[in-house]
Amino acid sequence: MNDPLDGAPGEVSPGPQAQGQEVRKAVQVLRRGGLIGLPTETVYGLGADAGNAHAVARIFAAKGRPPDHPLIVHLHDFGQIGAWARQVPRVARELAEAFWPGPLTLILPRAPTVLDAVTGGLDTVALRVPSHPLARRVLEQFGGGIAAPSANPHKKISPTTMQDVREALGDAVDLLLDGGPCALGIESTIVDLSGARARILRPGSITPEAMQQVAGLDVGYAVDPTLRSPGSMSLHYAPQARVVLIPVAQVQQEIDACIARGLRAGVLSARRVPTWPAQIPWLALGESPAEQAQHLYQRLREADRLGLDVLIAVPPGDPGIGHAVRDRLRRAAGLGEAPHQA
Ligand code: TXA
Ligand code: MG
Question: Would you say the pTM of this structure is higher than 0.90?
Fold first, then answer.
């Protein structure tokens, strides 16, 4: 396929400041069917024109993503929703009013014009209005929907800096926008509003309690999100190191077992355990739930940079954002979604 673009592949914008020229360039790239590295408040996306089947096909090729894994369409504002969803229930409006722009993705019945390549052939579409100022400027000037999965190779760790995108997918991306490190650090909450009951398919920073408060919505977690959301299969977000999840009381024992087997281990936890062998690196997860979400993927990358065989991870206990962090850790360990009451 001919490169539809003038710029060199993997071209990088000059800095974290939202430069008008960079925004215009990004819009040009999108209009010509190219791919952009798009900063959002959650993670970086790999963006393409959601109305261009060739451009969308390039996303799947770049990520090595199976074609039945649907993409999220990013919009500038709620007013555009009618072009993508054929029904917009009251609760969708209420949630959008409360949380858009922001880290919430709504699954709604798709409009007939939405490309099958975007929805993976499903009768629903995933929609989100991000809050990152650079993403907002690109969306505003582009005017259409931007299909953007997280900008990582399939099943690998999601990117939270522009450098992460460049390292993993740089050659496949026509323009990388640098929006600085992502403020939230884990992907949006996905809530399915297409069925009789609202269901969370992927936990994130927006919790069921927050949704209940603003929309009086009785939202539970999907019993088996893999049935409804193909991308939520169990092994995901995985570093090279084997991830083992251990309660804090057993960390010392696990460290000793790794040392005895000659394995290079590191520990990911909010706090250090009292007795700490000098050769075991500590990857600090952070104290507050928001900090833990923000740091998580960078710490998983650090485990790879350190060449660890085993990452001993202590899942945080917080019931809110901590649930989303536990969910990502369980998937990184190949254990599937986090248990919940619902
Ligand atoms: O925060 C985010 O949501 C980031 C940023 C870039 O916006 N995007 C993101 O995209 O995480 P991705 O493709 O990595 O994850 C999207 C998830 C997948 O698990 C996919 O299966 C699910 O959304 N999804 C998309 N459309 C769906 C649909 N119609 N029904 C159910 N699940 C859907
Ligand atoms: Mg992803």
Answer: yes
